[in-house]
């Protein structure tokens, strides 16, 4: 029987780095371009060629976590619209391990509200779906899809899904920690502590991103805490759907939250359409959005199914 990526990774777990180290002197580090809980990210270049790179300096964590991220990037090697691991190096003084990744130009989509066309948005979302379809097919869920982890070049229309540091190998019916994803992009399954979630979490996160692009509001769902986050969802999607979801999967909701949700009938998207976004909020775009933001994680389309949606009919053949 063919072993899954998860099984191969579990067999390789240990206290040693499972990847050969390159020569740190081959690379030059320039400016810091990002930071996170587990890493600092810098721009840089390969000294011999001058080729731009990204240097992700990992903060001290268990070696198993580093091995997992490297293993995942190896599985994803040559996948479409996915940041590519080029090398792994270790600083001889600090002992910090760094991942050398390919560089991708990025335009902050918040600065492009009113400039991104329907075609642009379709190319953006389709590119991420291609990355997710490849990852999910190979048993990997990203678990932190958001605009900050999507590199978009408005000029070339190139898109790349980056930062696989929270990604995990997926085995059906297994339990996973829910303290993943970024607050405003968490799916209902995470907010309600459903441990047996699936790669469909990534579809929800991308749906939140699509909503932000269509309605010029990022983040789209913005609550102060988990309960308010749930309420923000139900303003548009309806409280009954959340109540049914909690009952179906035996998830706990406080009586006060239940009462508030029962009053939310769901307005969907009509009230969010105005002169600034009318051209991009096509019926096809709104239909895809509704499907991706399905509260029940088991009823969302897969990445491959979403790629077949009519919203992408105009651009599908142009994507290589």
From TrEMBL:
Question: Where's the Protein kinase domain?
Answer: 27-312
Give the top-level enzyme category.
transferase
Q: An example Gene Ontology cellular component term from the record?
A: cytosol
In terms of CDD domains, this protein maps to: STKc_CK2_alpha
Q: Could you say which EC number(s) this protein's record lists?
A: 2.7.11.1
List this protein's GO terms for biological process: DNA damage response; regulation of cell cycle; regulation of transcription by RNA polymerase II
Q: Which UniProt keywords apply?
A: ATP-binding, Kinase, Nucleotide-binding, Serine/threonine-protein kinase, Transferase
MF GO annotations? ATP binding; protein serine/threonine kinase activity
Record bears the keyword Transferase: yes
Q: Which residues bind ATP?
A: 65
Which reactions does this protein catalyse?
L-threonyl-[protein] + ATP = O-phospho-L-threonyl-[protein] + ADP + H(+); L-seryl-[protein] + ATP = O-phospho-L-seryl-[protein] + ADP + H(+)
Q: Which InterPro entries does this chain map to?
A: CK2_alpha, Kinase-like_dom_sf, Prot_kinase_dom, Protein_kinase_ATP_BS
**SMART domains named in the record:** S_TKc (SM00220)
Top-rank taxon, per record: Eukaryota
Protein name per Swiss-Prot or TrEMBL? non-specific serine/threonine protein kinase
Query: Which source organism does the UniProt entry give?
Result: Trichomonas vaginalis (strain ATCC PRA-98 / G3)
């Amino acid at each position: 029987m063919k072993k899954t990526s998860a099984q191969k990774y579990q067999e390789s777990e240990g206290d040693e780095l499972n990847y050969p180290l390159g020569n740190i002197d081959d690379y030059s580090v320039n400016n810091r371009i990002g930071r996170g809980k587990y890493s600092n990210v810098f721009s840089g270049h390969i000294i011999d060629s001058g080729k731009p790179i990204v240097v992700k300096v990992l903060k001290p964590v268990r070696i198993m976590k580093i091995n997992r991220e490297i293993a995942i990037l190896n599985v994803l090697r040559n996948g479409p619209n996915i940041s590519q691991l080029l090398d792994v190096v270790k600083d001889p003084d600090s002992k910090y391990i760094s991942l050398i990744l390919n560089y991708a130009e990025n335009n902050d989509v918040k600065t492009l509200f009113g400039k991104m066309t329907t075609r642009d948005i379709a190319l953006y979302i389709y590119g991420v779906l291609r990355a997710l379809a490849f990852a999910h097919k190979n048993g990997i869920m990203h678990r932190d899809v958001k605009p900050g982890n999507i590199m978009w070049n408005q000029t070339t229309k190139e898109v790349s899904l980056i930062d696989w540091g929270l990604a995990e190998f997926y085995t059906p019916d297994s339990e996973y920690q829910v303290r993943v994803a970024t607050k405003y992009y968490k799916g209902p399954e995470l907010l309600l502590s459903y441990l047996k979630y699936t790669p469909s979490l990534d579809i929800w996160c991308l749906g939140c991103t699509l909503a932000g692009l269509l309605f010029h509001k990022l983040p789209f769902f913005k609550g102060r805490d988990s309960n308010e986050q749930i309420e923000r969802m139900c303003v548009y999607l309806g409280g009954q759907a959340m109540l049914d979801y909690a009952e179906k999967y035996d998830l706990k909701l406080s009586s006060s939250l239940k009462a508030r949700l029962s009053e939310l009938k769901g307005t969907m998207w009509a009230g969010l359409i105005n002169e600034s976004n009318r051209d991009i909020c096509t019926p096809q775009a709104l239909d895809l959005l509704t499907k991706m933001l399905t509260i029940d994680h088991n009823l969302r389309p897969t990445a491959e199914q979403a790629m077949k949606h009519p919203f992408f009919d105009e651009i599908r053949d142009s994507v290589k």
